[in-house]
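Appendix B. Extra example for self-study. Work through it before the problem class; the solution is given directly after the inputs so you can check yourself.
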Amino acid sequence: MVSKKIAVLPGDGIGPEVCRQAVKVLEAVATRFGHRFEMQSYPMGACAIDATGNPLPDETLDACRAADAVLLGAIGDPKYDNDPSAKVRPEQGLLRLRKELGLFANIRPITAYDILLPHSPLKQDRIQGTDMVIFRELTGGIYFGAKGRTDDGEGAYDHCVYSRHEIRRIAHMAFQSAAGRRQRLTLVDKANVLETSRLWREEVREMAHQYPEVTVDYLLVDNAAMQMILNPKQFDVILTENMFGDIISDEASVIAGSMGLLPSASVGAEVALFEPIHGSYPQAKGKGIANPIATILSAAMLLEHLELNEEAALVREAVDEALNNGVLTKELNTTAPYTTEEVGNYIAFWI
Amino acid sequence: MVSKKIAVLPGDGIGPEVCRQAVKVLEAVATRFGHRFEMQSYPMGACAIDATGNPLPDETLDACRAADAVLLGAIGDPKYDNDPSAKVRPEQGLLRLRKELGLFANIRPITAYDILLPHSPLKQDRIQGTDMVIFRELTGGIYFGAKGRTDDGEGAYDHCVYSRHEIRRIAHMAFQSAAGRRQRLTLVDKANVLETSRLWREEVREMAHQYPEVTVDYLLVDNAAMQMILNPKQFDVILTENMFGDIISDEASVIAGSMGLLPSASVGAEVALFEPIHGSYPQAKGKGIANPIATILSAAMLLEHLELNEEAALVREAVDEALNNGVLTKELNTTAPYTTEEVGNYIAFWI
Ligand SMILES: CC(C)[C@H](C(=O)O)[C@@H](O)C(=O)O
Ligand SMILES: CC(C)[C@H](C(=O)O)[C@@H](O)C(=O)O
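Solution. Structure tokens for the complete assembly:
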């Protein structure tokens, strides 16, 4: 029996409804195993701006720091999207949270579930058996470098910066992951153009000696964007910097047939954060059509992070059960769709 | 009857063999229409480094400047790829050529040929009818900003910079293209994170008033990487900055079923450059298996640029003829493949 504090950040759009189902599943796990999960919700994103003027209120940040793990729904609202000059934007909350919590590694497993192959835009034989993990650097690069306008107002700049230290700490994680999987690591970069990419290659090449069992490939990002579609099965562990990781991991998500299935973990220092890779999907808000599985699988990753492996395995089994029995929202089950809540109930009940 | 000077840069790997076929086709056009095309070859890329130590020798640059148009094969050699610290690399020649000739717009049409749908990794219904043009900014952004190592040797940086002027000149081209097509323009950026992207949005939003017939969408690059695969038919004209364009346009190329079919034009000042989008593919060098069609279609774009529209149309017809009759290299015709030269001969003969 364990006792854990989980800060829940439901966020915007469909965030709250998918989070509710994941919380329900975590509660079912707690009951079944006799654990105590103290789960409390805090505002972040557009809802936090509306309520406090700040996308990441101090209270929210403090609660995350004090928690054993953070579960996030999704953030973002169209009313901020089309105003690039807005001084306060929902994303700033997420970016600041990543930085403040030191979440330097975003981990995204991409799995092509057999039962969902018909839903993928890719031909079945290209993707069947795809099983990769993408390690995206999350607190460096062009996201966090100096940015601004030139003095004459005629230009803008964004600086991409990386240190050896930033590269090494996530590269070690990726190497270790590869060592425990199919022993292949692919570094995605643009070493023929960028100096930061050349630094990544240098470091990874040097570190490779420490992991002799891992075969390392180097792939230019433009080529990676093609290979991801042409032959995704070739990948085991992909390691890449922040901006390329943002693009490549979202691209990879289409393989699975639905974004609604893909979880992610952001780790680094003590507290880790778990969230579905999909966005806040405001058009679907409140309609009961949002797929809660990505958030529920994020909760499974959260359990693993807390070393509750048996519990995590049970959540995964319950999700498989829903997949195998077609207990799915309408993007995956057009003939007899289940609602967000029904999917959550089914999975929680199974536990 | 016209007389034109075309500088040919065959480059490395399969570059020379595919260029040879395109030159043959241009010669057939000249004969048929009584034109005079003065075509001379100059070294650039790895072959130029080997011969002169310089990936873009002065003689080559001067010849390009003096020409009416430039036809390029492909550059790059594996011996330079895995040495990120090499001071001289083939790509530098291409990047410098783009900059020196002021080729600020890279234009890539992406067409899903019906007959090649079975070769695409994407399901037929997703891509049939895809017809888009990507306008990629080519002489700015992170490619050409300051780059280097920090003084302590522990870090590296690449600066991304854009001016309003750089954005406007290519945006005008993209708007004009959209106006003459299906009247949709999609700006791909990362305006929720990057200041340069916010400048792009500001400019494009302002310019949109001048093109009231064109509907403008704004798409974040991570979402664009998904939409490109989920529903490529939604795109008409895509406009984007240099680095995102590199990734997104290569990703888009998989739709067509083969990179061996896709041409590109790089334009800006007087002289324009035409090249297939594929690379130097060194493993295929000298085997007669390289598909010359992308280079031949690049030659067709070159003819259009010289306002030889009837001539260009004839080249396209000849290519269609090859496609429809299966006169194709082995990646597209596995049962009875034709060689690079046979495909070139067929197309030239048809003209
Ligand atoms: C919301 C946005 C700032 C964020 C990012 O680009 O990192 C998102 O796209 C993601 O991938 O988590
Ligand atoms: C060779 C390389 C520098 C180049 C680029 O990144 O621009 C290539 O990938 C391209 O797209 O033409």
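Self-check: The longest strand of chain B covers residues 3-11. If your reasoning did not lead you there, revisit section 3.
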